């Protein structure tokens, strides 16, 4: 969050409310405009890192609908707003202001066109699917694995043989730091030493919306098949994740999955259940 | 007056169209080409058979939803009229019921078309489903006959039968209609989450095939959604009649009808997200692939569209209530609250519509430090969305509460305390719901899913307890004046149209999502789709098809409105001086 921008917006609003309104009476339409600009400024400049343009558009569309609803929810206020627009268009006293507005609107459009045409060309935005649906089954070294029912075989040891479980966690740690940490980082935040070279960036496992929301069989699929196993909606050509089935055994992959959950403190999503 | 030639031309027109359609159907790609003995699929020229099936199935579903929903609330309204002796309720229930007979015919026709299309274009799939569900067909047909009987008896028996017998017919109509829907739901839910079959797809247990993972969630979801949809279409009919009303009495009546329709729709809308969430949980529990396809994969973008539509529904419903206050003396006291309610609704709408996976340029993604925005990321998951929708529901309820007490002044001695208790309940529930939402980020997925239950229950508790207090609080309340029905702006009626169209669009969209999530499977994991259409269409194409279906539905519903409106018209009489009058005057009378 950019606190300075929020404070500046709040100060401007207070100034309008308590100072400007002493000289100029603002009707609901004017207030709607002020709120619209204030919220646009807050979304565009008040949040750090900046919001993508698509999100600002979505939020401002919602806010515009809400403000129009508020303006028209009261018959008297709506009539006042309509009257003020008509007065502005026809009253002699506003003739100069009207001329300015009439020139300002096309001028603003022209300026916006000029600025956007002079921006450096960018590849188009893409709606990459971060968590694509897994197939119902995969083959690992010639063996079919049903992802709908596959469970981490190490998980049982957590309650039956703590020492054996700890060994698997330690093995998972070794595998992680030998293979994964270069990209996913030593804190699993997706900020490993190679991470800056990738687009998209490696996954951040500390984020509560990644592995905490997924079943262990999903992680097994992702690790085993890597980028080449991604469906097209997830742009497999963009991801640098190797297919670890070529380098690790099944047990090693389950071990590293256990370690990911142990390290981050998250629990995997359980299978089945309701019905 | 039509000439003989023109009339015969008009009579030949449908025949000509029929011949053209038959010629088109018999053109090269369909029937003329050498056919396999038992083809798995058949194709149509000009249009994909999948799109045809999609449109017919969705239109059938929309009319079926309407036909099932209207008797539910018509019966309730009729019962209120019977108990209170207020004839207006009886008339209102009849006005709603008038929409049923033509809609029922459309439903049956579209259902027959759907069946024929399935048999012709997807014979192998039809054969498989017949093999699994053959036991359900006979009860279905019998129930359908019964529904026809009860529906027409209910409609034509209005005012002709004793009130109790008539109410009984309405009750039976509802029971039979619901049973029909439950059977049809078994067929379609089986295609998503098949159960009761062996590895080769052979039936092992018919009850398990029926009672599959999502059968009951779909049953419940559809009952509630049908009522919301039916209420909204009924309200649109009220708005349609209101805008064309020529007398103050008619305006008042149809304003009231629109209000009751949308009241029904909002009441059903409030628990709908909970039913939808239960359905989602069951889908995820059946197979994570299905769950992720819905909420994380391609279809997740349709859920963003859904969120925008639902946000608009809540906003429009509140907007209508705020505009409705214009007809209530004393409502101006509560106008000041609107901006705060709107602020909460807008905030919740924004949270509800925030996607988890963002559309971002490479530069924007680099600035965010990855695919997820550190702040938006928090809003993009179910913990935030559940919290937002619960608060949306509570806010809508508050709007209704303000509307309800607009012309009342409590005279009970404990009025102030009662208000504070109500406020305390709201505050406690809001804090609790937000706390659970935040807590959801710090627990495992299973616990997080479980947190939605206390959130829902606390919101329901708030609504029920505050309503109970309100009833006693405003018992024998001082009135600031009677509600002036008909005194409302035309904008409110367009809001009713907007609500009806949005409900319909939403229904079409989510119908596509439910069917589309199977992707390249006819019966998920059992029977693969090997047709040329075994691909997921682009979101834009799907949106276009859904929109076209909605337009066709409203064209058909306009016919229903027109035909329903005919019953209230005066008998046709020729204008003075017209040929009819002259002919009648010159005709020999008995005396002559």
Summarize the structure.
Chain A has nine helices and two strands.
Structural class of chain B: mainly alpha
Helix content of chain B: over 70%
The counted number of beta strands of chain B is 4
Can you tell me the number of structural domains of chain B? 2
* Strand numbers in spatial order across the main sheet of chain B: 1-2
Structure, explained:
The complex is a heterodimer of chains A (275) and B (592). Chain A has 275 residues and is mainly α. Chain A is built from 9 helices and 2 strands, in the order H-H-H-H-H-E-E-H-H-H-H. In chain A, 55% of the residues lie in helices and 3% in strands. Chain A has a two-stranded antiparallel sheet with strand order 1-2. In chain A, strand 1 and strand 2 form a beta hairpin. In chain A, helix 2 packs antiparallel against helix 3 and helix 7 crosses helix 9. The longest helix of chain A is centred in the middle third of the chain and has 23 residues. Chain A is elongated, with a radius of gyration of 28 Å. Chain B has 2 domains: 407 residues, no CATH class; 148 residues, no CATH class. Helices cover 73% and strands 2% of the residues of chain B. Chain B contains 22 helices and 4 strands. In chain B, the strands form 2 sheets. In chain B, strands 1-2 form a two-stranded antiparallel ribbon. A two-stranded antiparallel ribbon of chain B has the order 3-4. In chain B, helix 3 runs antiparallel to helix 4, helix 3 runs antiparallel to helix 5 and helix 6 packs antiparallel against helix 7. Chain B is globular and about 70 Å long. Classes of the chains: A mainly alpha (275), B mainly alpha (592). At the A-B interface, helix 3 of A face helix 11, helix 12, helix 13, helix 14 and helix 15 of B.
